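Quick question: what would this complex look like in 3D?
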Amino acid sequence: MGVPQFKELRRVYGFDEVSISPGPVTINPDQASVEFPLGAFNFAIPVLASAMDAVVSPSFAVKMGKLGGLGVLNLEGVWCRYEDAEGVLQELANTPQEKITALLQKLYSAPLKEGLIGQRVREIKSGGVVCAVSFTPQNAKRMSPIAVEAGADILVVQATVTTARHVSKSYRGLVFSELIDMVKVPVVVGNCATYDAALELMETGIDGVLIGVGPGAACTTREVVGVGIPQITATLDCAAAREEYYQRTGRYVAVITDGGIRTGGDLCKAIAAGADAVMLGTPLSQAVEAPGHGYNWGMATPHPALPRGTRIKTGTKGTLEQILFGPATVTDGTMNLVGSLRMGMGMVGAFNIREMQRAPLLYAPDIKAEGKIFQMAQRG
Amino acid sequence: MGVPQFKELRRVYGFDEVSISPGPVTINPDQASVEFPLGAFNFAIPVLASAMDAVVSPSFAVKMGKLGGLGVLNLEGVWCRYEDAEGVLQELANTPQEKITALLQKLYSAPLKEGLIGQRVREIKSGGVVCAVSFTPQNAKRMSPIAVEAGADILVVQATVTTARHVSKSYRGLVFSELIDMVKVPVVVGNCATYDAALELMETGIDGVLIGVGPGAACTTREVVGVGIPQITATLDCAAAREEYYQRTGRYVAVITDGGIRTGGDLCKAIAAGADAVMLGTPLSQAVEAPGHGYNWGMATPHPALPRGTRIKTGTKGTLEQILFGPATVTDGTMNLVGSLRMGMGMVGAFNIREMQRAPLLYAPDIKAEGKIFQMAQRG
Amino acid sequence: MGVPQFKELRRVYGFDEVSISPGPVTINPDQASVEFPLGAFNFAIPVLASAMDAVVSPSFAVKMGKLGGLGVLNLEGVWCRYEDAEGVLQELANTPQEKITALLQKLYSAPLKEGLIGQRVREIKSGGVVCAVSFTPQNAKRMSPIAVEAGADILVVQATVTTARHVSKSYRGLVFSELIDMVKVPVVVGNCATYDAALELMETGIDGVLIGVGPGAACTTREVVGVGIPQITATLDCAAAREEYYQRTGRYVAVITDGGIRTGGDLCKAIAAGADAVMLGTPLSQAVEAPGHGYNWGMATPHPALPRGTRIKTGTKGTLEQILFGPATVTDGTMNLVGSLRMGMGMVGAFNIREMQRAPLLYAPDIKAEGKIFQMAQRG
Amino acid sequence: MGVPQFKELRRVYGFDEVSISPGPVTINPDQASVEFPLGAFNFAIPVLASAMDAVVSPSFAVKMGKLGGLGVLNLEGVWCRYEDAEGVLQELANTPQEKITALLQKLYSAPLKEGLIGQRVREIKSGGVVCAVSFTPQNAKRMSPIAVEAGADILVVQATVTTARHVSKSYRGLVFSELIDMVKVPVVVGNCATYDAALELMETGIDGVLIGVGPGAACTTREVVGVGIPQITATLDCAAAREEYYQRTGRYVAVITDGGIRTGGDLCKAIAAGADAVMLGTPLSQAVEAPGHGYNWGMATPHPALPRGTRIKTGTKGTLEQILFGPATVTDGTMNLVGSLRMGMGMVGAFNIREMQRAPLLYAPDIKAEGKIFQMAQRG
């Protein structure tokens, strides 16, 4: 009111604040196609499993591929530090919570064994599925060729925040266009959360961007450094960048919302906010086949000086197939995620993902509260 | 702030966020008329009982009718799957919570017995009241004539989201104008929650629309598929459609807010948002006469692959007459719902429902919190 | 977004959502005058005690007057239904919570004894203080002359919602201008919460309006009938009416915020929203001298068919003098209410109530949360 | 909606409501400079320790200085009332919570011993660090020369709300320009929270302003007097005053956000809102070296008539060095605060504090809730 402004604050939105408006036409859920193209690949379902050690093992990646999705194996975690990664994961599951941060810091300070890169890739390829692996920007240039040589089909380059321009004293920033020229497979890069950063990344020639800075259940980046954008706005903005880039160049870059999705409802909202696919961590760590044995932790948790995140107990809900395709034995939206998406598309009248992206979104902060407290008090 | 927008988010409102402004004139509650016309019928109170198996049995519908309202019997639930529906309801009441979803899924997979349709209608008609029954869109065309033949006076066609245009591979979408021509009784259709969908439904010739996608206490559609509109905005938008349609055609279609109403305050707010009547589930399941024996569950709960909702313990508060007309023995607004409406109309100065629809609504998110935590801490 | 609107929702505010901006000049608290003129009377502090049976007894009214404020005795409660009102209040204090609504309904159905009106007035007057008494609009015309005859100095006419125009079948609406002509003492009327209603009441010639529909800790009007306006907006709007009326007529009508005030902070906010004084119930019921013995209940609680409110345990904090003037032994703002007001006026730089009314108000929903959860978790 | 407004409410923001947007360029955290100039001094880190008795002792101030920051010793607390301040602090730590307000009121009513002023200053100076001490405005003029004479390098003048113009009957308001002329050392003044008040203070010639009225974890000023501005808006507004004053005069006055900061995330947000440095109380009271023995209390807590605040148990987390520079053993952002700032600057692409001040801020009320409740429920 008359006072000079130092800066304006932009309103941004998260999953719990929005809902999708039903449409004037409805379709039967079995009419909805949920296919997801990425580079030359076409996946039956728009779901990637996160490159987290508690979520994707080589065998989990195979299972995920056979079910129509894509599991991304982290090649800088326990699978490339330990021959017996399974044993390490078992040790982590058996360690009490008060000792877990120290143990994670210790276990992840073991050196990377480059010889394991090819072995892990081959374990996935032997399952007959598309193989996706992830590196950090620091190691991507050096290690990616090893993985691609061994047969990796898709490369994911991922850090908490990744930009097309990174300044460092100790190493030359990764130039993504050079990486793409070198590996000659589709490259997915993340994470980013803004229009500008997404557009710059798209202009390097990549095939997909991972959206999300700090939203996951196993991540506390927002508490520790104050940086973050809620997933609905992050997805909306990066989808706007995709449309702008698509109209200008004719090249369509996949927008993949990564982190913070807990239910089928969140998955539907991510698509309605403009995502082409989602990357899931905690929800898939609840699969019987997940290597975390009912736990999950973020890849920033083992940071030696500034751990951001902790191990959370996610429990085991059912097989991966049940979590993705049901039948659901719970009613909170955490099972039959693909069935939820189809049903949501039915209510909205969307025949495919591109149409679902056009469903109106509502800012409905009360959507959860309405009747919820009452309900909780009375659930008998 | 300069960034291109993928889409805008519209602000929408729920019961807990609004309150009604008192008016410059007050009237005595006994001056207020709460009559509700529907088709050729005129009900003494603007209250329908939900077509839920835990709420309306044939005898409950008779009681509801004698008290001036309208109970809707669901003819695709236990009453048309089992001769001994009472026994099935007793079994459900005796089953522990952890087994209830599986039991509901099993019990509701029993086939519909069309012979029971006429029997249930006659049980209601023998009570000397108006008889309303409900079907899903899939079965409405085939089963409605049987119900009307047996004497049903009002037909309700209801699914989670219903539109005038539905696309399906397996069956031809229900054409409501054809249904109306066929049954020649008032038809009420739901649920819908948007201006466009409501207007299209009205244009088919129906007599009432049920408003509400996913708001009820026994429903988790919003968690599972992310689709939903809070009830105040849904009611406001569909009331706007009713006014538009009324001005254009001279035909007045009843707007009935269905779901999420827990107290007399919510009921008053629904009317002030433009509703002509309300449909109540959980509040009426608390009547001694309700068939749920102190429980309620949504009709989407038994879904075989994607259950949305669960059984909630609602308890038993008093007779249906007490819940509707008092005297109240509790002070939280869950008893004497019609008395609450009359008192609210008195404070607003509204002589009838149409005048109550014109009362100003306030966006008052704090309205509950103010003094509430303090109060709870101190309630002795 | 293009959809026709049935009605717009106005944003309104409550105590917990706002804070007062400190000013560019500060003054010492002892520089601030908190005097409150009402009609020909001038009170040392801008505090009235609510006309509630658990708050004001004749002896409490005397104590309140001696401390510079004004206690209002309800002449339609236990003090005019029972000779031995003290005994009745003791019985209420000794009754367990689950039986209290029924007991209140029973005790308040005893007939009013008009002979007690004069007796109670004289009990207050014998203490040598200004005597204020309250009636409902239904009884005000008949009973007020009795009270004034006995010596009452100020008349309060109060119902949940009171307007200048009330429509009833059973009695002619009270005409305030006639009442004022008849009693020839200052008349305070309430409750109201809107600009229009306040302005119309002021135009009848009254000296003060009570602001607040349903905000008190002992009241559940908002749950039961959905009607209510949070106190900050109600006070702001009625203060705007006062200014409009004052500019037009030169007559200044006191705006008294009644209900929902729990702390010195709330008191300061009410004044900053435009109030000239406040009426306190629950905070004063915590005085050793209060007749409620550590409990409070609203005057709508005993309603025979639709009780709105319940007995709350407020406890006993200290003497009335301590609650008003300290020293405080607690740090939550519930003691030394007048000291809080002086300190707030010091931070704002306000020398009197009229200047405090001009302090900027901020919409600061986070003001309480910031650091609060952290603090609670750590309070050792 | 057409109703005349008594006043408008301005929207203001606190830490929990905002987040920082990541930038289009990232830098390595070790590239970021966090230096903080104040007057002729240059500090390695932008962190001051609060002038609270439970936070800064003479030895703590020395430790703080050696780590690159600045500890401010309160010369009106126990350190200048008692020779054996350590013993008093031990007594406070050993006293149960229900007796603490009374004990604080008693202990702080002991007279100030002016002889201790010089002694405490020399204790700090003997450590070889910059010495900062604080007085209230009432005592600053009389006592500051004693402290400066003894070697104090920086003077802090602090009250809950301080303005350039204060009106008092009992003493002449402090004229800051006179004080500055007299002491000839940098003067920091606080607290203020508005553009106007900050600008007026800057115009007196001071070197820094402390921002924050009532936000700290150990303070209840907002509950008690209703006055306060959440820290993000307070910092934004005072930073706007700094820019205005800087552009007009070329003199740069430090803006120091004081209070309410609990985590590295909050610290980053304060800088992004325009602060040059932060003053920390509760987070540093958790250092092994803090004199509060795991407790903290505000300097308004011992107020004899209107205590605002209480002793809170903060616990002991690690050494001061660990809290400032890590390594962190917890993942909630309360350790390695400077590391958090560097990492945040890295994600934003800010090479120094001035660049971090330009990072976009988002209004993201959901930023904490998203996934948080889920997470808490599942943390194993």
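Answer marked as accepted. Chain C has 16 helices and 17 strands.
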